Every structure is written in structure tokens, then in C-alpha cells.
Amino acid sequence: MVKVGHDDETVADANAHFAFGENWAKYSERVSDTEIEEAIAGLRKLLAGRSLKGRRFLDIGCGSGIHSVAAMRLGASEVLAVDIDPLAVETTKEILGRFASDSRYRVEQASVFDLEPAVSGRFDVVYSWGVLHHTGNMRLALRKAAGMVEPGGDFLFALYRRTWMCPVWRLEKKWYSKASAGAQSIARAVYLTFFVPRLWVAGRSFNLYVRSYRKTRGMDYFHDLHDWLGGYPYESISSGEVDGLMRNLGLARRLSFVEKRMISRLGIFGSGCDEYVYTLGSMI
């Protein structure tokens, strides 16, 4: 049973969330060593030279499970993968069984709001990429996730950056997450009707963009588009707000990848994720 730690219905009810698990289950059918290697590369980038060998790793919002696999291949002594969506939990178990079949991992259906150090202990690395802004209470989710970090440990996460269009996208996502499959298909077609010419004007090929997207992101573009349009609940945050919140929790920024171009702040075609690495109890 999934417990909850907040009164907001979007936090308390998994059914109020977009069905990410269904998308991850479909995506998992395409997962190969290529996607696993890209997940490893992405995790190495955030670790920035720190080793995972002998360290406990918590994957919050594990989705397909490929980052849990990456952590194990990088030498994590133990991996705990959690997700509120039961389909994501089953997908993660399947992916781990396929690519990392040993006894160093556990997969549990749980919300970030369920996590308690007294139950699971603290972790040397807490990882949550593109998840906490979909919980219905991002700031509480950040506090809960940070509370699972071992002193001296690292908190690796990515969140949607604040854009001018965020209020519009929030309304769109609320609609899309409950729309019929046919209506969702039309919405994706409308999005692409504008996005493809935008790439053309910038001198870029859409087909090349889709091919390179899988290589650089480890994710199929069309699955990711479905995730973006339907990702509700939806919140976004500025880099300064993240820094203030983390400082109040005793974490210091070690590394970040924050998009600063003005065009990205408009958010006409959506908001990307800024990536952050914070360390608990370390002055950097």
C-alpha cells in the first residue's frame, strides 16, 4: 500500500497523476545497451569524478529503471528504487532483471513522501531526475528527498526551469493527462506542426533531431513528447530558489547545469530540466 504525507489530492492519489508508468512500460521494450550506456554517461556527468563504488544509491521515481541499472554498473553497493506508479515498479524490476540480475537492489512502490530515514536508512547518493516537479508539492518533495541523504553524501536531481509559459503549460498538462488517446494524439500532432518548422528555421532536420535525441538523452523522442504534454502535476523553479531551499536544508551546491539563454526562458515549446548536485554537510 502506498502511504502519503500530504493532504493535497494530487499528492495523495496516484490516479491524479499522469500515467507515466504506461509510457515507461512501452519505452522499456526498446531499451538496449545503448540506453543503459547513455544512462551511465548521464550519471557519471552528475557524479563529476566521484565514485559510486561501495555507496548506497536511492533512485526516487525510478520510471524505467535504467538509472538504477547504471548505478549498479558503476559499483553501487546497494540500490533502492521507488516509484508511486505500480507499472513503473514492474518495469523497473523487469529492466533490472534483464540488465543487472544480482541481489544488490530492491524495488518498491512508494511515493517520495513515504520515505523515512528511520525505515530505509540514509543514502550516499540520492538521485531523482525529472520527478519531483510532478509530485504535486515539489518543495516538500525536495525536503523529503534531501532528508534521505547521508552526511557527506550527494543529492542529484533535475527540475523543470521556470519559464514565462509555465502557467499555460500547467493548464495544458492538466487537460492532456485526462484526455482520450485520440485527443492526445491530436495534441501531439498540433505540437509537431509548430515544432518541426521551428527546427527547420534554425537549420536543423527533424529526423536527425529524433535520431540524436535517443543517443544524447537515452530516451525515445516520441515517448518523451507524450511525457512532456501529459506531465501533471506540474511545477517549475528557478536556480536561485533551488539554492535557497537547499541551503536551508544544510546542503551546498557542488555542481549545476543551468540553461541561461533567454530563448529557453520563454518556454514556447516547453521547459527543459536544469540539473543540480548538492552535498550535505560540506562547505564548497
Overview of the molecule:
- The model is unreliable at about 1-10 (pLDDT under 50).
- About 45% of the residues lie in helices and about 20% in strands.
- The N and C termini lie far apart (about 40 Å).
- It is of the alpha/beta class and about 280 residues long.
- It is globular.
- β2 (about 80-85), α5 (about 85-100) and β3 form a beta-alpha-beta unit.
- It has a seven-stranded mixed beta sheet with strand order 3-2-1-4-5-7-6, sandwiched between helices.
- α3 (about 35-45) packs across α10 (about 205-215).
- It folds into two domains: about 10-160 and about 235-280, 3-Layer(aba) Sandwich (Rossmann fold); about 165-230, no CATH class.
- The chain contains 13 helices and seven strands.
List keywords for this structure.
single chain, 284 residues, alpha/beta, Rossmann fold, 2 domains, seven-stranded mixed sheet, globular, disordered N terminus
SS element count, helices: 13
Q: How would you describe the shape?
A: globular
Distance between the termini: 40 Å
| Helicity level | 40-55%
CATH evolutionary superfamily of the largest domain: Vaccinia Virus protein VP39
The oligomeric state is single chain
CATH architecture of the largest domain: 3-Layer(aba) Sandwich
Summarize the helices and strands and which ones pair or pack:
Blueprint (H helix, E strand, L loop, with lengths): L8 H4 L7 H9 L4 H15 L8 E5 L5 H8 L4 E6 L2 H14 L5 E5 L7 H4 L2 E7 L8 H9 L2 E12 L5 H11 L4 H21 L4 H12 L3 H10 L8 H10 L2 E7 L4 H5 L6 E8 L4
Parallel strand pairs: 1-2, 1-4, 2-3, 4-5
Antiparallel strand pairs: 5-7, 6-7
Helix pairs in contact: 2-5, 3-4, 3-10
